[in-house]
Design brief:
The structure is a single chain. By secondary structure, the protein is mainly α. The chain has two domains: about 80 residues, Orthogonal Bundle (Multidrug-efflux Transporter Regulator, Chain: A, Domain 2), CATH 1.10.1660.10; about 55 residues. The protein contains six helices and no strands. Helix 5 packs antiparallel against helix 6. It is elongated and about 75 Å long.
Length: about 130
């Protein structure tokens, strides 16, 4: 079932400008304008590509990486596996960094909560280490 850009945006809960942005970036094709006038209609495979893009973004893939994934989907599972393994390592690194940040914030909350008179000094001294 082909849909207009507005219907696609509504179905996927994204903005029309987001779809146009993906078109400008070459992630999806803009449908041909009908020769008889009227609205462009997006085919089902384009809607599926948009869903793919949105889910890949949720997995922390950049638009450049998503473009690579979309082009490699047609070529080699090995390339997809390599890109996915790299992304997994990056996510693991982010998790470690965020876990350290959370621990430091917990220390700050505890220290600052114990000594209300010198919260700035406690905060500063803890982060200046």
């Amino acid at each position: 079932m082909k849909m207009t850009i507005g219907k696609v945006a509504k179905e996927l809960n994204i903005g029309v400008e987001t779809i146009r942005f993906y078109q400008r970036k070459g992630l999806i094709r803009e449908p041909q304008k009908p020769t008889s006038g009227g609205h462009r209609h997006y085919p089902d495979h384009t809607v599926q590509q948009l869903k793919f893009i949105r889910h890949a973004q949720e997995l922390e893939f950049s638009l450049k990486e998503i473009s690579e994934l979309l082009s490699h989907c047609k070529n080699s599972c090995f390339d997809i596996l390599t890109l996915t393994e790299l992304k997994r390592k990056q996510v693991d690194s982010q998790i470690k960094r965020l876990t350290r940040a959370r621990s430091t914030l917990d220390v700050l909350l505890t220290k600052c909560g114990q000594n209300n008179d010198s919260n700035y000094n406690t905060f500063f001294n803890t982060l200046a280490v």
